[in-house]
Amino acid sequence: MRRAILLACICTLAALPLLNMLPTDNPLHVSDFIITIVGKWLCYAILALSIDLAWGYAGILSLGHGAFFALGGYAIGMHLMRLIGPRGVYGHPILPDFMVFLGYTELPWFWWGFQSFPFAMAMALAVPGLLAFVVGYLAFRSRITGVYLSILTQALTYALMLAFFRNDMGFGGNNGFTDFKELLGFSLNTSSARMGLFYASLLALVVALALCANIVGSKLGRVLVAVRDGESRARFLGYDTLQHKLFIFVLSAMLAGLAGALYVPQVGIINPGEFSPGNSIEAVVWVAFGGRGTLVGAILGAFSVNALKTWLTSVAPDLWLFVLGAIFVAVTLLLPRGLIGLLEGRRK
Amino acid sequence: MNSLYLDGVTVMFDGFRALNNLSLIIEPGELRAIIGPNGAGKTTMMDVITGKTKPTTGTVKFGNHDLTRMDEPRIAMLGIGRKFQKPTVFDALTVFENLELALKSPRGPLACWRWRLAGTARQKIQATLDEIGLPDRAQDLAGLLSHGQRQWLEIGMLLMQEPELLLVDEPVAGMTDQETEHTAALLKRIAGTRSVVVVEHDLEFVRALGRRVTVLHEGSTLSEGSIDHVQNDPRVIEVYLGR
């Protein structure tokens, strides 16, 4: 059942950009708007997947995954800023506009290397991974679990948001980065670049799903379930659960970073608002709504909740947060297994 | 095989002596029952042996290994398995998967990811399924087992780790008479090739085991010997049996 849903979804998604190429008067034509927005959802789906891996299987409920997503976005954003070069408003050959404006005379050391795409992509994975490693190590070693860990991760993303708002951090302050020109030689506002990013995101999603499915289907997946349901019992079985939790938390953060790196070129902007705690909570709601601990459910949740959001924020923008809250309450009370549970019926 | 050796072990909790100068030796292959009223220190003793609690003073040794310097996973890997009072099998996994998790194998995350179930491992799991009497429940979720079956699965999980010493906390609490009998037979069968320490309230069960008994009281040993010996010990009668 899950496999069938999944295959249908991937085929539909892969066909979308092709339908975009049809003439505009064709009834099957898909608008640029749809392509851009579905491209964003693909990135959200990777983020949801990363949350499900940590929460659904290892029981690590992070309310700060948006931070890893944003860090991945900032890493690719730095690359995009470097590529602007002399085309900026101030025309400085190396320094991005905001640095010229703030009176920088040379590039800060942490911007070195970002002119290279492979380096920026590596950083989009490594920085979230490293942060997750440090935070995870300290938290798991002190056996901080459950709601305390959630609060900690929530505080982490909030702290990062405040830090990135500061101009002297060297990341553009509250304006963040925007006005990107090109990526890998493609001008970003062409439809071919949009299509390329769309397919890159779809590919990343499929690969990420395959990776996660491979992990949860292995003995490691069963150890994670054991950690989730009885960590001290797992420890008495000889599993050093710190290692397993750390492994999955770091991997999950790297996936979130990848999602952010694919997201930013598509939306054309990254600013500290991306760290806002609400974003992380919303992403958790996607997973809960779709069905946690199922992987496919997380993807389904990301798409359906965002589709609802897109529609609702255009017809009744004030209602959205109430509806989001209501969804979370309803899912918790009525659909503990989420949409997937509903679709698969009352099995077991 | 190693013997377990506790000497002069004291555990203080906020000034309260949960264990008071406790000394105990379990020989290799021995099956020992430990009884005592609530608060006698039985669970604390288990906690000290498995590394969950560190003693305030005293020596805890398993062969030449100083257990007071080791953490829980290392003690578990050393060959000391513990069955908790409340059965804690993993309900979301099948009986087979529960045993597979417990199987002695590399424990790190990457090793677990790469792990493939080979023929000998499958045979070991099958042998344990037979030993605990659950061969036809292998593919059922552990959450669907009855209370007694969960206890046996948990004992099976301990056996998978090929322990030298098995600590079993109140195995027959809440069991039917038939299940109790089955459990006594199971424990007697598995002792010998490994040491087994059983903490129990149920004196009928301890009698059915028919081995050496240690009575704990207020954190130290009150009496030790056969079940008949301790049941006739006036001090035991006073604090425990003669209520």
Structural class of chain B comes to: alpha/beta
The largest sheet of chain B has its strands arranged as: 6-7-8-3-9-10
Give the ordered list of helices and strands of chain B.
EEEHEEHEHHHHEHEHEEHH
How are the strands ordered across the major sheet of chain A? 1-4
Q: State the end-to-end distance of chain B.
A: 40 Å
Residue fraction in strands of chain A: under 5%
What is the β-strand count of chain A?
4
The coarse overall form of chain B would be globular
- Straight-line N-to-C gap of chain A: 15 Å
Low-confidence stretches of chain B: none
Q: Pair with the most extensive interface?
A: A-B, 23 and 28 residues
Radius of gyration of chain A: 21 Å
Main sheet summary of chain B: 6 strands, mixed
> What class do helices, strands and sheet pairing of chain A give?
mainly alpha
What is the rounded Rg of chain B?
Answer: 18 Å
N to C succession of SSEs of chain A: HHHHHHEEEHHHEHHHH
Report the portion of residues of chain B in β strands: 15-25%
What does this molecule look like?
- The complex is a heterodimer of chains A (about 350) and B (about 240).
- Chain A has helices at about 1-20, 30-55, 65-85, 95-100, 115-140, 145-165, 190-215, 220-235, 240-265, 275-290, 295-315, 320-335, 340-345; strands at about 175-180, 180-185, 185, 270.
- Chain A is mainly α and about 350 residues long.
- Chain A has a domain at about 35-275.
- In chain A, helix 7 packs antiparallel against helix 9 (about 240-265).
- The model of chain A has no long low-confidence stretch (mean pLDDT about 90).
- The relative contact order of chain B is 0.19.
- In chain B, the strands form 2 sheets. In chain B, strands 6-7-8-3-9-10 form a 6-stranded mixed beta sheet, sandwiched between helices. A 4-stranded antiparallel beta sheet of chain B has the order 2-1-4-5, with helices on one face.
- In chain B, strand 4 and strand 5 form a beta hairpin.
- Chain B has helices spanning about 40-50, 70-80, 95-100, 110-115, 120-130, 145-160, 175-190, 205-210, 225-230, 235-240, and strands spanning about 5-15, 15-25, 30-35, 55-60, 65, 80-85, 165-170, 195-200, 215, 220-225.
- Chain B has a domain at about 5-90 and about 160-240: Rossmann fold (3-Layer(aba) Sandwich), CATH 3.40.50.300.
- Chain B is an alpha/beta fold and about 240 residues long.
- In chain B, about 40% of the residues lie in helices and about 25% in strands.
- The model of chain B has no long low-confidence stretch (mean pLDDT about 85).
- The N and C termini of chain B lie far apart (about 40 Å).
- Chain B is built from 10 helices and 10 strands.
- The chains are: A mainly alpha (about 350), B alpha/beta (about 240).
- The interface of A and B includes residues 234, 235 and 240 of A.
